[in-house]
From TrEMBL:
Protein name as it appears in the record: Probable peptidoglycan glycosyltransferase FtsW
Keywords, comma-separated and alphabetical: Cell cycle, Cell division, Cell membrane, Cell shape, Cell wall biogenesis/degradation, Glycosyltransferase, Membrane, Peptidoglycan synthesis, Transferase, Transmembrane, Transmembrane helix
InterPro entries, A to Z: Cell_cycle_FtsW-rel_CS, FtsW, FtsW/RodA
Catalytic activity: [GlcNAc-(1->4)-Mur2Ac(oyl-L-Ala-gamma-D-Glu-L-Lys-D-Ala-D-Ala)](n)-di-trans,octa-cis-undecaprenyl diphosphate + beta-D-GlcNAc-(1->4)-Mur2Ac(oyl-L-Ala-gamma-D-Glu-L-Lys-D-Ala-D-Ala)-di-trans,octa-cis-undecaprenyl diphosphate = [GlcNAc-(1->4)-Mur2Ac(oyl-L-Ala-gamma-D-Glu-L-Lys-D-Ala-D-Ala)](n+1)-di-trans,octa-cis-undecaprenyl diphosphate + di-trans,octa-cis-undecaprenyl diphosphate + H(+)
Coiled-coil residue windows: none
Pathway info: Cell wall biogenesis; peptidoglycan biosynthesis
Domain of life: Bacteria
Species for this entry: Clostridium acidisoli DSM 12555
Protein location: Cell membrane
Family: Belongs to the SEDS family. FtsW subfamily.
GO molecular function: lipid-linked peptidoglycan transporter activity; peptidoglycan glycosyltransferase activity
Main location: membrane
Amino acid sequence: MNKPKLLQKVEVDFVLFATVLLILAIGVIMVYSSSSYIALNNPDIHDDMFYFKKQGLFAIIGIIVMLIMEKMDYHKLKKVTNILILVTIFLLGIVFLFPAVNGARRWIQIGPLPSIQPSEIAKYVVVILLAKGIEKNGEKIKKFFPTVFVYLLTAGFFAGFVYIEKNLSIATVIMVVSLIVIYVGGAKGWQLSAIIFSLVPLGFLFILIEPYRLNRLKTFLNPALDPKGTGYQSIQSLYALGSGGLAGVGLGQSRQKCYYIPEPYNDFIFSIIGEELGLIGCVVIIILFLILIQRGIKIAIHAKDVYGTLLAVGITSVIAIQAMLNIAVVTGAIPVTGVPLPFISYGGSSLVVNLAAMGILLNISSQTQRK
């Protein structure tokens, strides 16, 4: 008779926790560095620490939320999944009641209160929903109809909601992460490969029906075609990265943040990092994200149940894909699209939601069972 294998409970993943805090600290510092000039010269603000104070406050709130989520058993998410879905759909819907910002309706802004971006919540709610459904249905996921088809349809529903808010980048993140979670959950690879190949023409269609996206694609191939229009950000970003060299021009010494790059503390903050901290600073950021991804994968592998594995895979995939897309945009590897760099780009709702997700991942690590 075989004896049962002994399992030992481990503590929370300290390496992941320390890595997240380090990326967060760098992010808050770089938000100040990249925003101080604009904030100081803004006639409505006149405070070089304006964005730094707000980001610092959200960082503190986010850390508190992360610590709370780390102490809460992640299995409790199953009980509130339906509530999370309804709340997310409601938030995605009422976005259209608020004025558009730069042609997009992505934010809920009520008076002086901080704005909320529901798409940031949606990408994690989809992960929670898929993890619960896949664990519940077990081996049924090996059948494309109806199981995998329903999962894809559900993810497509949320992605479609986000897409009509003029946020193709986050809609893409939702679909890619969903495919990863479904594949890890047991779906057949050839089925998902066929879906991916079939979605490529659809992706080009989404680009073609929006003139500004088509222009971005054209200027991606040659930014000099429209140096003062759609190619402007790419050119200025490359100027920043190029002028940084190996060690950078020094913290706070960026020239591109002085109205050359629009809102340098947002999606293009990585270019300011490259200018001020050089190639060395960029490599350090990339290494930190790679460590975070490695720890997330390790937690997923050693999770004590399927639900924990799928949650860990989904959460890690969201951060990984967003980081890769943002860095690819800044370095000119793909067309310009609005994807923030997790934990570093300015944004309250994004920061708090991402840290809450890290809390869930840390809780999964604290319940990991190892042989």
